[in-house]
Amino acid sequence: MAVETMTVEVATASAMGLKALGAGLAVGLTGIATAIAEMTIGPAAVGATAENKDMFGMALLFTVIPETIVIFGLVVALLLLF
Fold this sequence. Notes:
mainly alpha, 0% strand, rod-shaped
């Protein structure tokens, strides 16, 4: 039974691949979570705005808040890659 050792090139390529996988997961999972949050917030915001035009600013704020989670995921991905 021969024991094979990992070369430096293979280890470096493996580390880069795992970093890319982590970056992709960071952006992808935060995107899915934001989509789930927007799925319920969006229709409620539109309904509130339809009933009362003064609620537009609050509705816009409530729809923008979950989107910041994706920005945090993008920041994590960039920190992983660079």
